[in-house]
Structures are given as C-alpha cells and as structure tokens.
Write a structure and sequence with these properties.
By secondary structure, the chain is of the alpha/beta class. It has helices at 2-18, 58-74, 161-176, 187-190; strands spanning 24-29, 40-45, 78-79, 87-103, 123-139, 144-153. Helices cover 28% and strands 30% of the residues. Strand 5 and strand 6 form a beta hairpin. The longest helix has 17 residues, at 2-18. Residues 25-180 form the DUF4136 domain.
Length: 191
C-alpha cells in the first residue's frame, strides 16, 4: 500500500508542476492617438518602480532594454541616443509572493478513493514568486501614456544565465507583439 501512496503523491506533485502559472500578457492603448506620427524612441528604466532587488536588478534591466530595443527596431522605429525622441518607452518590474493550493480529491462519498484504494483527500500547497514586467509607451511631447503592455508570471525561476536571458527576451517579445507593427501605422490599420 505504501507504493500506491507514493505513486499517488508523485502524480499530484507532477500535476502541480505542470499547472504552474504561465506568463500572461495583456495590453491597453489610447485609441484616439494617431501612431503614424511617431518614428523615433528612447528607452528608460523607471528607476522609482524597479524596487525588486532580483527582477529589477541592473542585469535584468539591461535584458529588458535590449529586448525592447530589438523589438522596436524590428517594427521600423529608430532609436535616438540624444535629443528629442517621439516616444519614451519606460519599463519596470515587480514581484510578489503567491501560493497555489491543489487537492487530489481522492475521497469518494463511500470512503473509497481511486480504484477503491481508500486514501483520504490530500491538499498540497506551493509557494512561488510571481513577477511582472510593465512597459509604458509615452508621447514625449505630452508625457501621456499612449500604450501599455504587461506580463505576469514566473520569470525569475531559471537557474542558468542563458535561460534567464531567453525568459526575459521571450516575455518582452510577447508584450511587444501587440505594439503597432511599424512606424507610420496606426492601431486601426492592423486590426
């Protein structure tokens, strides 16, 4: 009977790992803004909001800025090192502790579990860190947000540098895929 209990526990643990929260991406924009007027940008980390010492570290800020730069260049926007840019792209990260609770619901009304094994209901809990990357795009002249995208999920659970680089690059790419395809194209034209 111990082997059946171990198998059941491993099954539930495997299910919890498989059900780990994925990265969720959302975005919002001002439909009144004509994006055709914008061609240049500059990227800034929002220093006041990057308070998390891990996800908001300078290493991760560089990863995010590099991924944003590649994405915007790929859409036809031109970076501006000094001088006036049409768009100011500011980003920040934050984290919070979360808990996932799962039950295997093996108990039946008659006291029998899976196939009559009779194991009681077991509840499992998993603690994890949920991270968020937020990208705000401002009209540089008015300092109004015209577009915002954000991703929420587990970004900092990679152990190797290559995996962390890829995780942040993929996250930023997922956020920016909702940004207008190229300079000179407005939101209505791509929908």
């Amino acid at each position: 009977m111990k082997i059946k209990a171990i198998i059941a526990s491993l099954f539930v643990a495997g299910t919890m790992v498989a059900c780990a929260p994925a990265v969720t991406v959302r975005y919002d924009y001002d439909p009144k803004v004509n994006v055709r007027q914008f061609a240049t940008y500059r990227i800034e980390a929002d220093r006041q909001r990057n308070a998390d010492p891990i996800v908001g570290s300078n290493l991760n800020q560089r990863r995010i800025a590099d991924a944003l730069d590649q994405s915007l260049k790929g859409r036809g926007y031109k970076p501006v090192e000094s001088g006036e840019a049409d768009l100011v792209v500011r980003f920040f990260t934050d984290s919070r502790d979360r808990q996932q609770i799962q039950s295997n619901n093996t108990m039946s009304p008659w006291g029998f579990g899976w196939g009559g094994w009779g194991y009681p209901n077991q509840v499992y809990s998993r603690q994890y860190e949920e991270n968020r990357v937020v990208v705000n795009v401002y009209d540089a002249r008015t300092n109004d947000i015209i577009w915002q995208g954000w991703a929420t999920g587990q970004l900092n659970n990679r152990r190797k540098e290559r995996e962390r680089d890829a995780a942040f690059r993929e996250t930023v790419t997922s956020i920016m895929k909702n940004f207008p395809e190229s300079a000179g194209q407005d939101y209505g034209a791509q929908r």
